[in-house]
Write the structure tokens for this entry.
Amino acid sequence: MNQLNVRVLGAVLLASCWAGCAGNQTGHVSATTMGDTSHPAERGSPTAALEQACGAQGDLTSDATPRIRRAPYLQQLTTSSVIVGWLSTTGDGERIDVTRPDGTAVVTAQGKDDTSVRATGEKQMWSTITGLEPDTVYCYTLAAGSTSLSERIGFRTAPAADATRTVKFLAFGDSGGGGSDQFALLEQMMKVPFDIIIHTGDIAYDSGTLNEFEDNVFAVYSDLFRHFGFFPAAGNHDYKTMQGAPFRDVFNLPADNGEKWYSYDYGPVHFVALDTESDYATQMKWLDRDLAATKQPWKILYMHKPPYSSGEHGSDVKLRMGLEPLLAKYNVQLVLAGHDHDYERVKPQNGVEFIVTGGGGKGTRPVGSNPFTEFSIDVIHFVYVEVKQDELVLHAIDGTGVEFDSVVVPRERDAV
């Protein structure tokens, strides 16, 4: 389907759901209680500057139909490289052309077929783009021969490790059900300016099938994925089909650990995605080595099951016991998790901030409180994080755009 038609169809579905499918409203879209709202988030379009630079919204062209089944999207974005993926019926001669905003050619990369679990005859395509400069806007086009299959699409490479500008990212989890809550939250995501997106798992409900990834993930977030790097952690629902093989098929993640757990740097931040469906002892040994090796001043971990939670599933105590010595040893500042369909901010534990962000659009469930709870609420939401030189500010924003909680986390904080 032409990407413009997908966008129009999504808008029609959203409008119709708001008007008449209340049965699909399985979560609380609006926060009913407020936490700390003394640190308001920056507002603005995340895509406006990229669209202005590249002169288009990046839609597929009419020549792409019916050849391209999934629009281009970004993976493993770094200071000097990015991997572009798409789904094709043929793959023949398809490539990515990269230019500067003024049209100067930079590089061309041929697409490679990496089909693994797909039995439909469609081809999962990847192009690896290298030789780019840090923190620089580029434009890319999907093409085959002399035919453009997409308009120009803008993206920005990661800043260097010593960059002083603020790094901004979105985080959310438990999202991919395809319902109206998910679309409502997406509308609010498009109103804060961010650099990358991370996900705390349960991306494609109910069972992480290829069709569920197409319908409940790529059909929903294509306007974001084509511009911004997306770095997911897998959840238990993502593992229900072939032990997560579709998850690893549609995403191109660092492969050192079978695309299950991995780390990467974005500016001064070292991010670590853990896999709570895999062996903890093995991951803790790897995590010890990984955190020992990084030189980044900021260290942020994320995963699906929460070390601390007052929600339906509760705390994963085994995970907590494995993590906490390493978090203290290496001065990790922030841990994000999902699994429980709510928001919870935990009192700092030995200097570490823990957040449950499992309200990404697949309903909400009641959440209580524990002695470790600072604030909790069952509401559809995402978190928007601004990482500055000496502090980060986390903002929790609901499905109507209201910021209902925030917290400032210093880069250096004494253990308590």
In short: The chain has two domains: 58-156, 167-410.
